[in-house]
Amino acid sequence: MKSKTTLIFNVFLVIVFVFAFTLPASAGKTYKLGMSLAITGPTSDAGNPYAKGAEDWFKFVNETDYLGDGDKIDCPIRDDQYKNDVTKRFFEEFLDDGILIFLSYATGGNLALKRDFEEVQIPVIPASYHEGLIVDANYTFMPVATYSENAVGLAEYVMENHKGGDTPQVAFFIHPSAFGRGPLEDTQKAIAEGLNIEIVEVVEHGTDLDNTAMLQRLVSKDVQYVICHTVQTPVATMLTDAQRLGVTAGSFGEKGKLTFLGAHYTGGSDLIALAGTATEGYLWADSYNLTSENNEGAKKQLELAARYGRDDKAANSHNYGAGILAAQIATEAIKMAKETGLKVTRENLYIMLQKMNFNSFVAAGPVTYSDTERIGVDVQNIYVAQDGVFKKIQSFESKYIQKVRAGR
Amino acid sequence: MSQNRWLATGNFFTSYKQEQRTFFTHLDRTIFTCFLVILFGWPLLFEISNKYMLVLDNILIAIVAVMGLNLLLGFAGLISIGHAAFVGIGAYTVASVCQVIGENHVIVTHFWPVLIVLAGLMGAAFGAFVGLPALRLKHLYLAIATLSFQMIFEWFIQFMSFFNQGQTIYVGRAHWLTGQVGRSDHYLFWYYIILTIVVILGFGVRNLLKTKYGRCLVAVRDNDRAADAMGMNPGLTKVYAFALAGFFAGVAGALHAYLYRGVGFDSFTLHHSVAYLAMAIVGGLGTLNGIFWGPVAIKYLDLQVEQFSELAGHYLTYAPNVATALKPLSFGLVIVLFLMYEPRGIANWWRIVKSYTKLWPFRY
After folding, report:
1. Which of the 8 DSSP states describes residue B73?
2. pTM of the entire structure?
3. Which residues of chain B fall below pLDDT 50?
4. Contacts of A176 in chain B (CB under 8 A)
5. Rg of chain A over CA atoms, in angstroms?
6. Which of A347, A348, B74, B288 is the most buried (most CB within 10 A)?
7. Nearest to residue A140, comparing CAs of A115, A165, A163, A108?
8. What is the pLDDT of residue A316?
9. Cβ distance B198 to B64 under 8 Å?
10. Strand duo A367-368 + A357-358: pairing
């Protein structure tokens, strides 16, 4: 009898023990997301901190029970090395795993998968801000203003701040691909809509390490402004050459000299690290809040980076912030669905994304989407490189890009 | 001939016709048939994820492309460093049709076999054109000529707005007897189509090599002057070898376009040409089964190295460039070691295994 009681007691203890350890673990749900980007290979200088930003935010969400009820986000981050074929393979793998939102990366990869996104009806948050990704697409939610908005916005800034009665003479320095050409085409459309600048020359850069001839030619053509849309390395080479030749403008729009301006991927702390003092005076349009601004948002970004032991380079990179924002958008969509009492499914997350309106500490403005709007942060900041950091000059929203879109 | 057609032992050819048989023994035929049954039947028995089906489809497409390259390099002895451009010609043939008549036009969606053949013919036409320098050039000089074609192709695609400046041109979903092939069946459907094409083209190559045209290729490779003296036309043979390689590449390109439902420039770069070359060499130049081994080995290696590099990327967070370099480094190292220790390719291992099993239990 005694042994029977002991046995029952032991079984009871075992059940209590098992439940004690298993219940908390099974209390929360796990939501699967998937991210594919270039951690190594071409453009990994941007992709690497971007991945760290997203990874840290999801860790933060899980550790602090941000979603509530012990719910967690599981987001495997895969390195596609900037290859569309590999991105496609990862996407299929993620679909097999039943992901709810796909966090994607490059322009090429997103364009290649655009039809799949629509077919599978999966919300996508890309790291590329190519305007073409949201044309005839419902499921791609652009986190911030597009490259075209950056370029047209910079052209507007030139038009508004150019001194003298003449038309500003502008050259475009672009990446030799559709990624580089898209914003140029939209700027040309904006000119047709009345934007008062003249594009004197378009330079599609190669892998040249010397831009002397090109810069001298631009000066000889009375070009005053060079709008860049490419990645940081060729811009750094050009700025260094301009400094060496003494053709960099000392002040905005200085006659006989060149004032350099650029879109999202051309600037940031990495550009300063590459070009050093040659970056001084460079104007940069971006929708992210920079750590050099030393505001509340910047502090939060640095705190998050410090919490997960990131180095200064990653912590201060706007691409780290971009990764955080993409992860935040996905997180907020899940949170909204939960708060509304909806089941967390792709369909419901798609609905939630269209109703989204929240402030992120890494963005220049609120993230808002609607039934027709697919760009989260419309506000752009114009920064100028001064004393080794980018400082904010002003915030703005491009007016002409709306006209370009309306005419599309 | 021996009465026992199941074993090679004791069988001697008494006529040219016997020598030209596709299968020398019943055993060969039975094994091959079983192999085909397995290849066609396993997807009906096991469920496999889309990811792995995509990998398999890719391997099969690479086999089609490498068949052409092996004809050119292995059998005709003509080097080409622009094979991916020929594959691209096939893919962009389909893409061009989509650009002109629309991606969902009935010709694109219903008459895809016609488009695949058309893509092959376009590849052949470009192949013949690019092969013209082969009339005058040999060896490294010919390699440079084909490299030029690769460069011209890349430049052309990237700068022409008709080709969307290299960005993806979409291709509609194919239709089959049961209607449109849906997303869930897409990769399986193309697995069967590509596998069927591989089998047809494989037999085509096998039979070609038994004809005078096939023998011409080998004769020109071994000594074009001697071939000329024997009454063959080495120039024409070389151009025709390029056309054949272009045809296979074009078909592979069209299959790639339909499989990915889009054509983008970055699937047909110099890097891909080098990869095709590596597949042909690792598989075994001038061998039939090497055509199959090469793509399987290289694609598998590529996947393994990719995982290794990805893993390194996660751990070497402070040095992403080192992780980036690991992939080409380890890939290149494996290829070099392979060429050093087995220059005859995996086909030679297959030959050794076959001769061992034929003689077993005797050693010789």
Report:
1. I
2. 0.88
3. 1
4. 158
5. 24
6. B74
7. A115
8. 92
9. yes
10. antiparallel
- Which domain range does residue A210 map to? 149-286+382-406
Other Cβ atoms within 10 Å of A196 Cβ, number:
13
Same domain, yes or no: A133 and A161: no
Any domain includes A118: yes
Task: Quickly tell me which residue has 């192709």 as its tokens.
Answer: B153
Give B313's contacts in chain A (Cβ within 8 Å).
39-40, 48, 79
CATH classification at residue A155: 3.40.50.2300
Residue of A nearest to B328 (CA): A41
Find tokens 């110099």 and name the residue: B270
Residues A256 and A396 grouped into a single domain: yes
pLDDT, residue A5, reads 63
Segment B265-315, tens digit of pLDDT: 889 999 999 999 999 999 999 998 899 999 999 999 888 888 887 777 677
| Same domain, residue pair A154 and A141 | no
Whether A140 is in a domain gets the answer: yes
Distance of CA A122 to the CA centre of its chain: 19
What pLDDT band is residue A12 in, cutting at 50, 70 and 90?
low
Q: CB–CB of A81 and B320 under 8 A?
A: no
Helix or strand (DSSP H, E) at B159: helix B139-159
Q: Does A177 touch chain B (CB under 8 A)?
A: yes
Q: What is the ipTM of this complex?
A: 0.87
**Nearest-CA neighbor of A266 among A46, A29, A8?**
A46
Residues A132 and A155 grouped into a single domain = no
Residues A242 and A348 in one domain: no
Instruction: Output phi, psi for B263, to 5 deg.
Output: -125, 120
Is residue A301 a part of any domain in this protein? yes
The C-alpha R_g of chain B, in whole angstroms, comes to 22
- Measured between alpha carbons, how far is A120 from A142 in angstroms, rounded to an integer? 18
d(C-alpha A145, C-alpha A374), whole Å: 10
What pLDDT is stored for residue A134 in this prediction? 92
For residue A391, being part of any structural domain is answered with: yes
C-beta separation of B89 from B253 below 8 A: yes
Give pLDDT tens digits for A156-212: 999 999 998 899 999 999 998 888 899 999 999 999 999 999 999 999 987 778 899
Beta strands, E only, A158-297: 169-174, 198-204, 225-229, 259-262, 283-286
pLDDT digits (tens, 9 = 90+) for A353-400: 999 999 999 999 999 999 999 999 999 999 999 999 999 999 988 999
Distance from the B54 Cα atom to the nearest Cα atom in chain A, whole angstroms: 7
Distance CA B171, CA B116 (A): 13
Q: How many domains does chain A have?
A: 2
